[in-house]
Amino acid sequence: MNTNTLENSVTEVIFQLEKVSVYYGSFEAVRKVYMDIPKNKITAFIGPSGCGKSTLLRCFNRLNDLIPGARVEGKITYHDKNLYSKDMEAVEVRRRIGMVFQKPNPFPKSIYDNIAFGARVNGYRGDMNELVEQSLRQAALWDEVKDKLRENGLSLSGGQQQRLCIARAIAIEPEVLLMDEPCSALDPISTLKIEELIQQLKQNYTIVLVTHNMQQATRASDMAAFFNVVTSEEGKRSGYLVEYNETIKLFNDPQEESTKEYVSGRFG
After folding, report:
1. Quick one: which of 27, 42, 189, 260 is 20 to 30 A from 65 by CA?
2. Would you state the pLDDT for residue 234?
3. Averaged over 225-243, what is the pLDDT?
4. Domains in the chain, start-ordered, CATH in brackets?
5. CA triplet 243, 64, 210: central angle to 5 degrees?
6. Is this model's pTM higher than 0.90 or not?
7. Which DSSP state fits 148?
8. Apex CA 178: angle with CA 172 and CA 179, to 5°?
9. How far apart are CA 48 and CA 60, in angstroms?
């Protein structure tokens, strides 16, 4: 297995993982991952259920800090700074590294206030109307909601709600967007809209995407990381990184047999 880094690439690296493991108590859920995440690219995490994709994703904005008993070992650097050092405040990390979850989760507020809420909390002093419009435009939602900004965000369709959540994440001006299966609860048309949106967003953001959908990974990502799972005698499942490469190479010329079996649909 290769070291899964991008040392020979001219692409700027935004995250670097060295021997990263994630534990829940004494249980090692993710084992010793080495990986570089390139800036302004879309990196997809693929693999069977239980292989630690979402667990690893949550390391990037320290959401695992909120889970009792969870801890991260190894080193994750963000712009060459240790993401878990004492002088890195978790709240600031989460402002710069936004998150979009599997199920759309708008606040039970107006469409306008869904966007404005985070900006207000973070002390935004600019033109709020302009920020709301700009965020909704970036999320390809403005034309659909511009005449009903005072309506409840929960009144939107599922696909619109997910784009509202993306707009909400964008509004606090992050650098990175983490997306944990953002299309799994959506219909095919809404899914394609989100995928098109993701492609547009990578001009301004680094995106890390967890997906179970092989077609989505091939359509939407520049880099792909395949994770597999090993089951202990006690029945506990631990994930590990098998292979990491440009998406087109990982799907068309996988170097590991288990990757080949997974992307061809023979298991998973």
Report:
1. 42
2. 78
3. 90
4. 13-263 (3.40.50.300)
5. 40
6. yes
7. -
8. 115
9. 21
